[in-house]
Amino acid sequence: GQLGLGNNAPVGAQFAERGAGLPYVSFGSTSDDAIVDAATGLAFTVVLQRNGVVRAFGDNTYGQLGLGTTVANMGTLSSQKGSALPRVELGTGMGAVAIGAGKDFTCVVRNDTARSVVCFGNNANAQLAMPLSSLTWGRAAAEMGDGLPLVPLGSGVVARSLALGTSHACALLESESRPGVTQLKCWGSNVGGEVG
Q1: Which of 128, 137, 141, 158 has the most neighbouring CB atoms within 10 Å?
Q2: CB environment 67-94: b (16+ within 10 A), e (fewer)
Q3: What are 25-73's pLDDT values in tens digits?
Q4: Rounded CA gap, 192 and 195, in Å?
Q5: 57 neighbors 74 (Cβ within 8 angstroms)
Q6: What secondary structure letter does DSSP report for 108?
Q7: Strand partners of residue 118
Q8: Which long-range contacts (CB under 8 A, 24 or more apart) does 149-152 make?
Q9: What are the CA-CA distances from residue 24 to residues 3, 9, 51 (Å)?
Q10: Which residues are 136's β-sheet partners?
Q11: Does the structure show a pLDDT above 90 at 195?
């Protein structure tokens, strides 16, 4: 279901499925519903709408869709596509301004004044910036919304964007007191020195 088409059939192998024949997924008819960003993981997709809503579809083995449930997949049924997909609950009154997808986890920059970062999915390599005692996050309702822990990025900075790899994540941060001055903070697997 990672293509968001309401089925699990491959697309693009047939000539008629290319170019103008390539299907698209609609998330609504207003400009607020428009998709402004998308990120793909191993077998899932996350989208950010102009109105700050995040939706995700595909594999949910580790909770990477942010559904707060153990449902294995989302998007394989015709009733599970576009605006019918559930919203990712990011906390009371929270939307998103940026998204990122790793192999089997997702991170989001929320639209609060601090531009806080939250992550959910697989945490086997601390890619959610949580203790390894929590191997997954996002598979229970209490783990989403106001139950999402913030990635500890320090004070005096706001997150501007995210970049996620297989099992690590980085946030581009801007100083609150010195606009334009940025720094990069990374967390997760460091087997190849990927977090600096």
Answers
A1: 128
A2: bbbeeebbbbeeebbbeebbebbbbeeb
A3: 878 888 888 999 999 999 999 999 999 999 999 999 999 999 999 898 9
A4: 8
A5: yes
A6: E
A7: 108, 150
A8: 149/118, 150/116, 150/117, 150/118, 151/107, 151/116, 151/117, 151/118, 151/119, 151/187
A9: 9, 14, 20
A10: 122
A11: no
Q: Is the pTM of this model over 0.85?
A: yes
Q: Of the candidates 98, 103, 74, 89, which has an alpha carbon nearest to the alpha carbon of residue 140?
A: 89
Tokens of 116: 């806080």
Picking from 52, 53, 60, the residue whose alpha carbon sits closest to that of residue 137 is: 60
CA separation for the pair 160, 181 (Å, rounded): 12
The C-alpha torsion from 194 through 181 and 52 to 87, rounded to 10°, is 30
Are the C-beta atoms of 65 and 138 separated by less than 8 Å?
Answer: yes
Angle at 7 between CA 2 and CA 13, to 5 degrees: 75
User: What are the helix and strand counts (H, E) for the chain?
Assistant: 0, 11
